[in-house]
Amino acid sequence: MDAFEIRMALVGYLRKLNASQGSVKRAVDHLRVYSDCSGDLWKCVMQETKKGGLNQRINILYMLDDLLCGSGGDAAESTAYRSHIAAALADFIGIVVPLEPNGVINLQAAIAVLENWKLRQLFSLQELDGLLKQLIDRRIEYSNHNDDTDDTQSTQRLPDKEILRRFEEDRERHKRLKEEMWVLPISTLSRDDAMNYHTPSPGHSKHHNLHKTNLLTLTADNAPLNTEFDHAWEDTSDYNEDDVEEMLDDMNNLHSAQC
């Protein structure tokens, strides 16, 4: 296939894109196979996103999530698109969630995808935090506006058929996103490195002298270990009296067993 045929094939996949795994897979596989044309194909994705309706735009966002986070294919094939997405991330999200009344339809789904990308540290955390703050502020503003005015006509009602289709596709998209959130990227560290790995506590400098501290520098290769630590740090409660009592009980049980 020449460059024109590759581009037109992608246009066909994107225009037929829906929430089904088969539809998403066809588009993602095409992008991966022709990752050497990533720049041209990304321009094609942006153009089709601008042309599509709200449902088509959110489908494309979830397709990109599958491209970056889904299993299958070579990681390098997905990485080829990451720089293009990073450069246009704010503009792309602005297209998916436009500043218009009906734009709120895509608001929550876009927040879910960005939070997944933040968890996986795919892009600048500062930029992702900024985009998430903008979307969350819009959600709060929209909610407060509806509470104050009781205006049920703030958004244009979609046809019943379109609403039912959106329900079904949202269910499929959210199910797939939840499944992917449980799958962390695979670290490329050796077994010995992983066993000796220590994640620095929050506030600790990330610039380590390996010879002096024996700490591994956090890079794209061992970021999965950092993600695991972030999960544990958020889910673990502060050290308190209950922990002291539990340790004393364990010590007493151990002492009783030895007697």
From TrEMBL:
A Gene Ontology term for the protein's cellular component: CTDK-1 complex
Biological process, per Gene Ontology: positive regulation of DNA-templated transcription, elongation; positive regulation of transcription by RNA polymerase I
Gene Ontology MF annotations: kinase activity
Keywords: Kinase, Transferase
Keyword Nucleotidyltransferase part of the UniProt annotation: no
Kinase in keyword set: yes
Source species: Wallemia ichthyophaga (strain EXF-994 / CBS 113033)
InterPro entries associated with the record: CID_dom, Ctk3, Ctk3_C, Ctk3_N, ENTH_VHS
Name of this protein: CTD kinase subunit gamma
Source species, domain of life: Eukaryota
Residues covered by the CID domain: 2-139
